[in-house]
Amino acid sequence: MFFGKSKNLLGLDIGSSAVKMVELKDLGKGKGYQLLSFGIEPLPVEAIVGGTIMDSGAVIDAITKLIRENNVKNLNVATAVDGNSVIIKRISMMPMSEAELAEAIQWEAGQYIPFDIEEVKIDHQILESEGPGGNITVLLVAVKRDLLTEYASLLGQAGLSVSALDLDVFCAQNAYEINYPISAGEITALVNIGAGTTNICVLKGGSPLFWRDIQAAGNNYTDSLQREMNLTYEQAESIKRGMAVEGVRQEQAAPILNAVTEEFGAELKKTLDFFRVTTNESAIHKIILSGGGSQVANLDRYISQFFGVPVEIMNPFQNITVDERNLPLDTINRLAPHFAVAVGLALRKLGD
């Protein structure tokens, strides 16, 4: 969405617990995409806190390790940001040309942005039109320039060039749209559960109606397990993912995990209730989970029962060609939910 252009961009999702990398090849002629390389590299605890990079050296080391071990030659990157330095608004404007809109949006932005207008970079996208002579619905996005500079500097130190900067909340949408059928009028909630933040984007057909970040996320499980069972961070992470840990029985952890899941469901309900009130949409038809937190045991089942709608864990590689001679399909499928944002980024290319 921001910066310039490049072709064949490398998708790099810099999350609070790990860096995820995806490289795709557009097969052309409507044949879809092929996965060229992928990888995930954990980050030290608190290397990134609340979207703020606290240990740039650790992040750079993780990125360069992914590039080196996967023999990646494409150094032009698409990456994503979120947090308090990002403002997203859906606004209605009078019909006008793209050139007029580009100028008008700068003035319109001043009503919605709580920062000095000189401190932000503004972009926009027309979502829909009410028809000839009718108003247009525009997605307004503003990101603080110091955040853009920070990411460009960080990736530059890793030997990479930032060619596109997007938003976490919309990257999962991009991945969803190439892997799943889109039905006009269907309301779908995309819930991307990261370690420190959960991104929620509600779509009607393929158009975003509502988005919000909540702090209920994967780390809530880890923190509760550490506190209640006196575990190390590594032990708690393993238990959360259903892995065996010596001296710890899963049935001991189950009540703790279930309690956090109930809290997560309650927070998600508050957000989706607010969506209904502010948009006058009466129902959500399905929920799609992604992110590492989506793999907590029985979370998808609980959310489905709690909201009374179908729930699915996204596989962002579902419609992407994988050469099993070069890439481990079993590992890709096991880790797939972690890569929703990275796949969405890797779809970026020349002209975006």
SSE order and pairing:
Layout: E1 10-14, E2 18-26, E3 33-42, E4 48-49, E5 52-53, H1 56-69, E6 76-81, E7 86-93, H2 98-109, E8 120-129, E9 136-144, H3 145-157, E10 161-167, H4 168-179, E11 187-193, E12 198-204, E13 207-214, H5 218-229, H6 233-240, H7 250-279, E14 286-290, H8 299-307, E15 311-313, H9 329-335, H10 340-346
What does this structure look like?
This protein has a domain at 181-313: 2-Layer Sandwich (Nucleotidyltransferase, domain 5), CATH 3.30.420. A hairpin with a 3-residue loop joins β1 (10-14) and β2. Helix content is 35%, strand content 28%. The chain has helices spanning 56-69, 98-109, 145-157, 168-179, 218-229, 233-240, 250-279, 299-307, 329-335, 340-346, and strands at residues 10-14, 18-26, 33-42, 48-49, 52-53, 76-81, 86-93, 120-129, 136-144, 161-167, 187-193, 198-204, 207-214, 286-290, 311-313. The protein is globular. A 5-stranded mixed beta sheet has the order 3-2-1-6-10. A 5-stranded mixed beta sheet has the order 13-12-11-14-15, with helices on both faces. α5 packs across α6 (233-240), α5 (218-229) runs antiparallel to α7 (250-279) and α7 packs parallel to α8 (299-307). The longest helix has 30 residues, at 250-279. The protein has 10 helices and 15 strands. With 352 residues, the protein is of the alpha/beta class.
**Unreliable sequence segments:** 1-6
What is the strand arrangement across the widest sheet?
Answer: 3-2-1-6-10
Indicate the radius of gyration in whole angstroms.
Answer: 20 Å
Average pLDDT score: 91
CATH topology of the domain at 181-313: Nucleotidyltransferase, domain 5
Q: In whole angstroms, how far apart are the ends?
A: 7 Å
